[in-house]
Amino acid sequence: MNKYVKILLFVVTCIAVGYLSGMATQSSVTTWFPTLVKPSFNPPAWVFAPVWSLLYTMMGVAAGLVWNRIDHEKEAVRKALIFFVIQLALNALWSILFFGIRNPFLAFIEIILLWLMIYETYVQFGKIDKIAGYLFIPYILWVSFAAVLNGSIWWLNR
C-alpha cells in the first residue's frame, strides 16, 4: 500500500470518528449547551466544525506518515499508532461525556487524560517523522484551549 493510501485511510477514519461522535451528541449541542453560562472567550459555534475538520485531517495525515515508516521502524511505529488510537478514542469519548451525558466535570477530567495522550502521540510521532510530529502541534494547542474552556464552563455552571 502506498503512502497516499495510508494517509487517506487515516484521514477518513479520523473524520468519521469526529462525525460520529458529533452526531451522537448533536441534540445537546442545540438544546442543553446554549443554556450554559460560558466564559467570555468561548468561540462562536461556527468555529468548531472547520477547526475540528482541519485538525482531524492533520491527525490523519500525521498517522499516515507514521504508518508509512512501518518497514523501517516497526516497533516504534506500532507503539506510536497505539497512542494515536487511544487519543482518538479519548477524543470521541470527550464528546459523549460533555454533550452526551452532560457532565462538564467528568469531561474536564477526561480532557486532561486526552491532552496527555495527544502529547505522548506527538512525542512518538516526532521520533519517527518530524512532519507528523509538527502536524500534532495545532491539535495539542486547540485541546489545551478546549481544556481551559471546558474547565471554565464546569466552574461557571457548578
Counting DSSP H or I runs of 4 or more residues, the number of helices is 6
Helix proportion range: over 70%
The secondary structure category is: mainly alpha
Low-confidence stretches: none
Number of strand elements = 0
- Strand residues, percent: under 5%
Question: What is the CA-atom radius of gyration, in angstroms?
Answer: 16 Å
Average pLDDT figure: 96
| Major sheet size, sense and barrel closure | none
List the helices and strands and how they pair.
Elements (H helix, E strand, L loop, with lengths): L2 H28 L17 H20 L6 H27 L3 H25 L1 H6 L1 H20 L2
Helix pairs in contact: 1-2, 1-3, 3-4, 4-6
Describe the protein.
The protein is 80% helix and 0% strand. It has six helices and no strands. Helix 1 packs antiparallel against helix 2, helix 3 runs antiparallel to helix 4 and helix 4 runs antiparallel to helix 6. The model has no long low-confidence stretch (mean pLDDT 96).
